[in-house]
Amino acid sequence: MSATITIGGDLTVNRLGFGAMRITGSGIWGPPPDRRAAHDVLRHAVAGGVTFIDTADSYGPDVSEELIAEALAPYPAGLVIATKGGLVRPGPNLWEADGRPEHLRAALEGSLRRLRLERIDLYQLHRPDPKVPFAESLGALAELQRAGKIRHIGVSNVSLPQLAAARAIVPIVSVQNRYNFDDRSSEAVVDACAREGLAFLPWAPLGGITPLAARALERLAREHRRTPLQIALAWLLQRSPVMLPIPGTASLAHLDENLAAAALHLSDAEVALLRGA
Asked: Which of the residues 59, 75, 123, 179 is marked catalytic?
């Protein structure tokens, strides 16, 4: 894995990260059925060249962060653990925004404790809370940054106007929105990140591929002797130089397939073909 991206001017990581949501239990709730297997996946990802792991306090809740620390702390040099706050979990597959400053402060302290860190390299507001002024939520993160508990701040699940509003409040280094081969609703946000030098972390990078999209991917998969999902990941990596995909899995075999996609190069004609698919 050789291609890198620099986040915030001082965090250089390999451009294929790992999303640690799926290592929890069913419904992203509770512990995984096999805790040791989850540790193995995390260690295998790092051994395979992953230097950026994305998680959140709401994954489990708490479980994903606990597993990361159990498997990897003390962390190897150069490994960036990014986490998020601003969502609460009433139950399996249920997510509610909570952007109150007091909640974000408590969430950050909990993440530091579970991850066994003194500072979070990249802390992201998980979702704007319509009940709380954006400036209050981001202002709380700015205070924590000044206190030395956050290195860089990112935002997640934002529109283009919300990104602009966030950047007027506090320096933003990354955006994490849903984006994949079949869901390009954040296309304008991707392009804005490229113009401004912000990292773009597509969540669900392999999600929701329709039959029509699958046919385009399958054609190139046959030609490259790879899987359609590997083609989709390679397309993401070549879509923009600021793209940092974070595919997640609880399977060692799927993890190896994802990591192998980082070495797959598509021609300009193939990228253009897929972009129009």
From this structure: 59
d(CA 25, CA 34): 9
- The pLDDT mean for the chain works out to 95
CA distances from 109 to 98, 104, 142, 189 (A): 15, 9, 14, 30
Mapped onto helix, strand or coil, the DSSP state of residue 274 is: helix
Residue range of the domain that includes 65: 4-275
pLDDT in tens, 35-44: 999 999 999 9
Biggest alpha carbon distance in the chain? Answer: 53
**pTM higher than 0.85:** yes
Measured CA to CA, the distance from residue 110 to residue 105 in angstroms comes to 9
3-class SS of residue 45: helix
Structurally, how many domains does the chain consist of?
1
C-alpha dihedral sign at 64, 70, 73, 75:
negative
State the DSSP H helix or E strand holding residue 62, giving kind and residue range, or none if neither: none
Is 179 part of the annotated catalytic residue set?
no
CA distance 25 to 21: 9
Q: What is the CATH number of the domain that holds 88?
A: 3.20.20.100
Q: Is the pLDDT of residue 60 over 60?
A: yes
pLDDT at 277: 64
